[in-house]
């Protein structure tokens, strides 16, 4: 990942490609930089539970107040949703694209007034 | 009863065909009403003052003069119809079919002229339509031989542009302005009869909104699948300004659809002269745009299929790979002890779901193999077996 702190400042669309073994670390680093740049973040996750990501970011000292989730895997795998996960929409299946589309629209509406929205 | 002379005069004056009488040197002696109407000359402007051949288009003059000379020298009439271009008083060119008859008694030549301009234009349009269809056929063959439609587009446009005898032919792809939501057009490919007519390197041809270009009318019609015709003399002011900037006199614009998605458009411009497009030509331009859309669709479908096969094959070939990687990660999380047991449990539960999915995939594939199902693509078999 580019070590320059300013590399994410003015971008609107960014494609990040990471080797699998570095995926977790790169994800944390990317989220850290975006939050440091005062970005609002919407994470759509289909392989990692949102609760896990939330705890991971907190443990790494990232301000999770700027992060929202659309979690398509937890309910699918567990059948239930955990308590206490803030700013998260849980979907029943990662393959339900209609529900995903609705969830994205609703999440974007909620953070419409905030500047510098970033979708991951 | 009227005399024969009166009758001939009556015929001469009222014939629907233009008739000229000229002497053996080609000087016009008399012209009938039909001739004067079609050429906008008055009889007294030309009779006794001009040679017939002085009104013939320079490119046809020598040929017609030879026919005329042949008639006067042989002093016979040949039953020939000669086509050539005649110059009207205002300089406009008309196409005529003409006969020359030698009068033995006076040594004069009687010339009849029938205006066939419209017929010639129809024939030219038919020839152009056939040529465009031939170019489309050529384009289809190129697209079928080459996997990348982008690679052959320059050749396809060149073939169609030359066949249609236009100044420029080009393709624009649509995009959307994320900030304003306006629909934009982006020039992707072009052929022009010379470099001066080319616009593809004009930066304004990228990210140009239909609104700013003054062609919202195009947007409305094209998205419905309709072909648009634009003539600088009849379009509204905004559209006219756009045409003036680009030096365009007439355009035909046909939408390109990929399946049911409006991708963009193909258009033909004429910058050098006024041009009347026949219905046949406009239809064939629509067919050309359809061919381009089909080529893009074919390639997109092919690439999607290959991506699907590759992904599916990867999952089947090494079904435990992703799960193994995830379990390594979970082990690391457990050792790091920075996330809750609940999160770890959820991640393990996801791996159980993954294993169930892998089992289903293997079961499906086993069934297809046992049934010798032909739905398994050859590329898939190849990937699995290597």
Q: What's the layout of helices and strands?
A:
The complex is a heterodimer of chains A (120) and B (386).
Chain A: H1 23-36, E1 40-45, H2 50-59, E2 67-71, H3 74-78, E3 88-90, H4 97-110, E4 117-119
Parallel strand pairs in A: 1-2, 1-4, 2-3
Chain B: H1 4-14, E1 18-22, E2 28-31, H2 33-39, H3 43-46, H4 58-74, E3 82-87, E4 93-102, E5 109-115, H5 117-145, H6 149-164, E6 168-176, E7 183-192, E8 208-209, H7 216-222, E9 228-231, H8 237-246, E10 250-258, E11 261-270, H9 279-317, H10 321-336, H11 341-370, H12 378-385
Antiparallel strand pairs in B: 1-2, 1-5, 3-4, 4-5, 6-7, 6-11, 7-8, 9-10, 10-11
Helix pairs in contact in B: 5-6, 5-9, 6-9, 9-12, 10-11
Q: What does this entry show, briefly?
A:
The complex is a heterodimer of chains A (120) and B (386). Chain A has helices at 23-36, 50-59, 74-78, 97-110, and strands at 40-45, 67-71, 88-90, 117-119.
Order of helices and strands of chain B: HEEHHHEEEHHEEEHEHEEHHHH
Quick one: overall form of chain A? globular
- Number of helical segments of chain B? 12
Q: How many distinct helices of chain A?
A: 4
Q: Structural class of the secondary structure composition of chain B?
A: alpha+beta
User: Stretches of chain A where pLDDT falls below 50 for ≥5 residues?
Assistant: none
As residue ranges, the low-confidence spans of chain B are none
Radius of gyration of chain B: 36 Å
Rg of chain A, Å, rounded? 14 Å
Instruction: Give the percentage of residues in beta strands of chain A.
Output: 5-15%
Shape of chain B: elongated
* SSE topology string of chain A: HEHEHEHE
Which assembly state applies to the chains in this document? heterodimer
Tell me the distance between the termini of chain A. Answer: 16 Å
How many beta-strand runs of chain A? 4
- Report on the biggest sheet of chain A: 4 strands, parallel
Name the chain pair whose interface involves the most residues: A-B, 17 and 17 residues
Beta-strand percentage range of chain B: 15-25%
Briefly note the structural class of the backbone of chain A: alpha/beta
